[in-house]
Amino acid sequence: MSKDFKPMSGREFPRFSAIKTFFRLPIAEMTENFDVAIFGVPYDGGVSYRPGARFAPTQIRDASSLGRGFHMTRAMSLFENLKVADIGDCPTVPIDQAQTYEKIEKFATSVLNTKKKFIAVGGDHSTTLPLLRAVRKHVGQPLQFIHFDAHLDTYPAAWGCEYHHGSFARHAIEEGLVDPKNMLQIGIRGPLAGSDDLKLVTKHHVQVRTMDDIREKPIQEFIKTLPEFNGSTYLSFDIDCLDPAYAPGTGTPVPGGMTTYEVQRILRALKIKNLVAADIVEVSPPFDTSQITSLAAVDTLFELLCLMGEKKD
Ligand code: MN
Ligand code: MN
């Protein structure tokens, strides 16, 4: 495979052929000379309901064969602006979360030490916490944080376990990994377990944009209300921010969510000066139909790469 860090051409090799990598990009060692590393985090030991997200990296690699590099709205050739490679999967221990967290943090730290940005493809949402720990240490201050989700993920311990996919955002705030005043949650909707569920985000003045906020006006009006992110920023994308009609293959689906197009409009409108790292989580291929969810993840991956590769004014 060539190392110009361009996707393999679909006109030379049909898109259903060849070994599957993210966006048909070359496989590389993380020490090689490129800008953004994409890696899988095949772990779903933090889920509370449907499992299966451990299979997401493989399935999203497969679906990303259809990925193309020219962004029409931005008039931008992504892979001219940015050298991107697939560095494989982060090591995990499927039956031990503590060991998995250590491995994820160490792996992400190694990537950051090569002065690269990264996009992690999970995995359930519990995998975001060790990624945030690595990025927070690397940056040296609390991160600005954009969180797409149906859920707040600030929930209490479950079955006596602190670390699960519904508690990562609480730990991120409590550990000082993110700056809650520069934290935005998008796509949130109920039902919640109780009104107490909102206490943490209210106490820390997190900006929450519910589905009602998003749908109250036309999308072109809503996107004007988004804050700007001028510091080192992390974006975590839980696929269940989408309505189950647009992302059926996920662990804890919630009706009344965004369309894929609304997500595209929001991602294109975000003003992020320095998107250091991002993740896409909670795709569960065993519950997917016709790759609907994996394709939505691929599209989000493309938009996130464009946010990293866009020329800043
Ligand atoms: Mn989540
Ligand atoms: Mn969620």
Instruction: Give the strand order of the largest sheet, numbering strands 1, 2, ... along the chain.
Output: 4-1-5-10-9-6-7-8
The CATH architecture designation is 3-Layer(aba) Sandwich
Strand content: 15-25%
CATH topology: Arginase, Chain A
CATH homologous superfamily grouping: Ureohydrolase domain
Mean pLDDT: 97
Q: How many strands?
A: 10
The proportion of residues forming helix, as a percent range, comes to 25-40%
Bound molecules: manganese (II) ion
- The H-and-E topology, N to C, reads as EHEEHEHEHEHEHEHHEHEH
Question: Nearest-angstrom radius of gyration?
Answer: 18 Å
**Alpha-carbon distance between the termini?**
35 Å
* Morphology call: globular
Describe the structure.
It contains ten helices and ten strands. The strands form two sheets. An eight-stranded parallel sheet has the order 4-1-5-10-9-6-7-8, sandwiched between helices. The protein has a two-stranded antiparallel ribbon with strand order 2-3. With 313 residues, it is of the alpha/beta class. It has a single domain, classed as 3-Layer(aba) Sandwich (Arginase, Chain A), CATH 3.40.800. The protein is globular, with a radius of gyration of 18 Å. The mean pLDDT is 97. The protein starts with 35 loop residues before the first strand and ends with a helix. 49% of the residues are buried. Bound molecules: manganese (II) ion (2 copies). One manganese (II) ion binds next to loops.
How would you summarize the topology of this molecule?
Elements: E1 36-41, H1 56-63, E2 70-71, E3 76-77, H2 78-81, E4 84-89, H3 97-113, E5 117-122, H4 128-139, E6 143-148, H5 168-174, E7 178-188, H6 199-203, E8 207-210, H7 211-215, H8 219-222, E9 229-238, H9 260-269, E10 272-281, H10 292-309
